[in-house]
Structures are given as C-alpha cells and as structure tokens.
Amino acid sequence: MATTHILETPEADLAYDVHGPAPAESEQPPLVMVGQPMAAEGFATLASFFPERTVVTYDPRGIGRSVRKDGRVAHEPGVQARDVHAVIEAVGGGAVDLFGSSGGAVTALALVAAYPDDVRTLVAHEPPLLSVVPDAAAAERARNAVTEAYLAGGSGAGMAAFIGMTSWPGEYTDEYFAQPPADPVRFGMSAEDDGRRDDPLLSDRSWAVSGYRPDADALAAAATRVVIAVGEESLTVFTGRTAVATAELLGQRATVFPSHHGGFMGGEFGYAGQPEAFAARLREVLGREGRGNPGKRPNPPFD
Q1: What is the DSSP string of 214-226?
Q2: Is the pTM here over 0.85, yes or no?
Q3: What is the mean pLDDT of the chain?
Q4: Using alpha carbons only, what angle is made at residue 204 by residues 129 and 186, rounded to the nearest 5 degrees?
C-alpha cells in the first residue's frame, strides 16, 4: 500500500507517494524513483519488488497530480532537481538511494550536482542527453523534427516521428533524414489531429531536458556513487547511445540492465519490459559497497 502526500511549495503543489514501511522503520534509506515526463504511476511495478524498503515516487510539476503555480510550462532539470530535493527533505532528508529513468535520470544528475548530500547512490537509467553523443547536431535536428511533426499533425504524427527517432540504430545519417514522414497508422495510432499541442514529450516543453549538459566536475566531487545504466536492448539506439556517452563523460562505463528503455515497467503503459529481472539488477547495483565515482575504465564502454 502507498500513502499519497501533497507538498505545497511557492511554485508547485507536488504529489508524492510513500510505499512500504515508513522511513524510520526501514533499515535502509528511502529509495526514490524519478521519471520525466512519466509520473509516479510508471514505477508501480518496480516499487512492488522492494517491499522491505521505503520507496518514494512523485509526479514532476505540471504532470499528473502535481499542479504548477509558477506560470511556466517548460520542464527544466534544475527546477525539477529543487522539487526532488524538497520531496527528499519532506520524507526525512538524509542520503537516499535514487533511481532515475529517462528525463528523470537527467533530473537526478542535476540533483546530485546541486545537492550532493541528498543521494547515496544514483542509478541514472538512459538519460536522453543530446549533447553527449558524437552526432549531437544531427540528434538535435532529429529531435526538432519530432516536435515539428507534432505541431503540424498532432499526437499521432508526433509519436510516430518519436518512435522512428528513438528506434533508429546508430547515428542520425542522411539516410535517416531522407525517410518519408513516419505513418502513425503503422504503429496502430490514429492519423487524425487531436488538436493538442501541450504534450511534454513531443512539444518543445522538455527541450531543456534533452539539451541539458551534466556538470561532470560537480558530479565527480560529490560523495554520491553515480551509476549510468543502459538497457541491453537499447545499446544501438538513441537512449542507449546517450547512456554510454554520459558514462564516458563521467569517466566510467555504463552498467547494463535487462530489457529496454522502459524495462522496469510491467503493464503500466502496454509496453512491458522485464521488471523482475530489472529489479534484481537494481538491487544488486544498489547493494554494491563503496561510495564516490569510479575512475577511468578501459573499453568496452559498458559492463
């Protein structure tokens, strides 16, 4: 069972859930799970595999149950890092363990850089960072084209373009950009324009997330053990490439997890991964001894 709380701040009312025992009753620090633009509901299956721990999930401001009061619509890692810091303080403070996935992994990297005492171990799963890959300019062009398709045709067109971008193997080449527009019907989606243009994934509202550049010096200086994770099925596609490149930026190798970008999920959104195996791998990684960041590691670029 989970209890839901609302943390009222001047800029947003943040909804978060506490699963399992209360922090004072757990032998280990809370395990915080952060997504973006995914809300807390996407971690339901993964949280269920840690019944002995306090697990905290939350909805980023402006998503799900968390209501913005700041008059803004952009999703910015630094702002979201402040929100997660506030949630950590609300559940008792101290150094938590944190699993961040996708944009949540970007938020988590910003959190550790700004609040290095908040996190004992961070597992940052496939942060979608444009700036770290060798073809950064082409990757930015590909991301922009997704938003252009969304603005021109609505959710179906935008999501089809997004799937095409994120499933493309390797760097974005002339061959990629020469393709005809992705057909939403091919992916079982409607081609009709739904009229909405506020999707945090497909619009430009999350460009600050994909455009974020991790502060490698601040992360290296933190006591936090930072682990960059990559799904074994993602290694050749965009978020797998960004994970490997982020790990290299931090002087380490990416740690391989089961499944794909959503490999920790059950049936929450209809694209199940391998949540039991994923949870076992996460438990293993969190249980490793030692703090601080690993030094330079030889090839291959992932473990």
Answers
A1: --HHHHHHSSSEE
A2: yes
A3: 94
A4: 85
| Separation between Cα atoms, residue 89 and residue 204, nearest integer Å | 31
Question: Which tens digits make up the pLDDT trace of 41-86?
Answer: 999 999 999 999 999 999 999 999 999 999 999 999 999 999 999 9
- Bridge partners (DSSP) of residue 7 are 14
Pairing of strands 12-19, 55-58: antiparallel
CA dihedral 81, 108, 117, 275 (to 10 degrees): 130
- Residue 57's DSSP bridge partners are 17, 33
Residue with tokens 């089961």: 258
The neighbour count for residue 27, using CB atoms within 10 Å, is 7
According to DSSP, the residues that pair with 58 across neighbouring strands are 16
Of the candidates 31, 81, 82, 38, the residue with the CA atom closest to the CA atom of residue 52: 31
Residue 239 to residue 247: CA distance in whole angstroms: 12
Q: Are 219 and 129 contacting, i.e. CB atoms less than 8 angstroms apart? A: no
Render 168-191 in DSSP notation, one character per residue. Answer: --SS--HHHHTSPPP-GGGGT---
The rounded distance, in Å, linking the Cα atoms of 116 and 181 is: 44
Q: How far apart are CA 117 and CA 138, in angstroms?
A: 36
Split at pLDDT 50, 70, 90, the class of 288 is confident
189 burial type by CB count under 10 A (0-12 exposed, 13-18 middle, 19+ buried):
middle
pLDDT of residue 295: 39
Euclidean distance between the first and the last CA atom of the chain, given in angstroms as a whole number: 35
